[in-house]
Amino acid sequence: MLDDFLMRATLAGIGVALAAGPLGCFVVWRRMAYFGDATSHAAILGIALSLALSLPVFAGAMAVALIMALIVSGLSGRGIAIDTMLGVLAHSALAFGLVAVSFLQGVRLDLMAYLFGDILAVSRGDLMVIWGGAALVLGLLYWRWSALLTATLGPDLAYACGVNPRREQLVLTVALAVVVAVAIKVVGVLLIAALLIVPAAAARPLSRTPEIMALLAAGFGAASALIGLRLSYLQDTPAGPTIICVAAILFALTNLAGMVMRRRA
Prior knowledge:
Blueprint: H1 5-29, H2 33-53, H3 57-75, H4 82-102, H5 111-116, H6 124-153, H7 155-160, H8 165-187, H9 192-203, H10 210-235, H11 239-264
Helix pairs in contact: 1-6, 1-8, 1-9, 1-10, 2-3, 2-4, 2-8, 2-9, 3-8, 6-8, 9-10, 9-11, 10-11
């Protein structure tokens, strides 16, 4: 079954969506969209370092994404406007990564595949990495779900409940770095933040509890991957961007449905 490249692509898209959907809910709730951008853009520098040192791309991308996420977490609340800091770090990391790639000698590199994804080229080894990373992220979220929700509501409430918000921020940071590393093959570094945010935002108007929103976000992400791959195959369009386009259409439809339901109520 796994000899079929479309089957491997489908499994890869679903695996990433199942991890990115619930994690994206926390990105939306905490208004961390730029945080995701900074982390994902840094991954291109990790790719360059991995190729230069002959290391697995997943390892380098995850390491640099994790370092960037820790830097952002450490600098938050230090007197610098968070949106300004994240904007500077996100675009600077991408620029340094692209410059580092240009110095690679004797390495055959398809830069577009890393920027926008190449889901149709997913191998069996890539599938193992994607599903292993997805299992790790889902396991972390399941283990720390209540604590993460409490810390998301506010640090004062978290301390009152015996929850350390810094520790929960670290859990989210690790999970985000893992998702960034495994999603590069599917949508590329430029669209990873969209895969985190758009399905979660699409689920929000239809959700009454955080758990329902997380499940719907995972479902919308998986549906976007399936429909996007099908449309990409039929219309000969780039797979990664097509997946995000489908997710954006779902976002528009669910928000329209939410507006209609609110008016009727």
